Amino acid sequence: MADEKAVWDLSHILEGKTTEQLETELRKKVETFKKVRNELSNISIQRFKEVILLKEDLSTYFSKIKAYLEMKFFENTADSKTLGEMTKLEQTLTELSNELMFFSLWFIELDDKKASTFINAAELSNYKYYLEELRKSKPYTKSEEVEKIINIKSSTGGYATAGLFEIFTAEFKYDFEGEKMFLLKK
Helices 45-75 and 80-109, interaxial angle, to 10°? Predict the structure, then answer.
């Protein structure tokens, strides 16, 4: 029983699509989102809400693909194919995240009066907390170029180390009540 392999039905996460199809859709949505940059100087509250909804949709796509591959990986941490897909995905998500960063940075740098208009708009009440939290990071936010470098370094620094730790420790066997068990089921 200790060496039983955990296998999950993950088909509902991808909704009948492959990770490649979701990634293609994600890239198209990112391209659509990037066009918003040209509208920011005169953006209406309604358009701002549409942009927030698109950003939320993008976040859902990011999460679906990442969750699927992480769960596939934890089914079998020795699966180099899934590990390779996860590594490629992490690089892709970092790249795409860098392409979306302009919006958050724009909002963070808005003058207080204009930002308050968005934060307190009735149409954006569901996003008030999110917008307020974004503004709190203003004193710690750097230029877009610097923030992009930090984002890249995050994916190759601490997160990468944590990933390696999971790979190595997943193979550890422990004696629990006289039975040899893996920390994670293989």
Answer: 160
Q: How far is CA 35 from CA 24, 39, 62, 94, in A?
A: 17, 8, 19, 19
Rounded Cα gap, residues 95 and 90, in angstroms: 9
The CATH code belonging to domain 11-182 is 1.20.140.70
Structure tokens at 119: 């934060």
Q: How far apart are the first and last CA of the chain?
A: 11
> How crowded is the C-beta side of 180, counted as CA atoms within 13 Å?
5
5-58 pLDDT tens trace = 667 788 888 888 988 898 899 999 999 999 999 999 999 999 999 999 999 999
User: What is the identity of the amino acid at 115?
Assistant: A
Residues 6+ apart with CB under 8 A from 73: 79, 82, 83, 86
- Condensed to tens digits (0 to 9), the pLDDT of residues 105-130 reads 999 999 999 999 999 999 999 999 99
Give the separation between CA 44 and CA 114, rounded to whole angstroms: 11
Q: How buried is 107 (Cβ within 10 angstroms: 0-12 exposed, 13-18 middle, 19+ buried)?
A: buried
Domain ranges, ordered by start, for the chain: 11-182
CB of 79 closer than 8 Å to CB of 72? yes
- What is the residue whose two structure tokens read 């897909």? 85
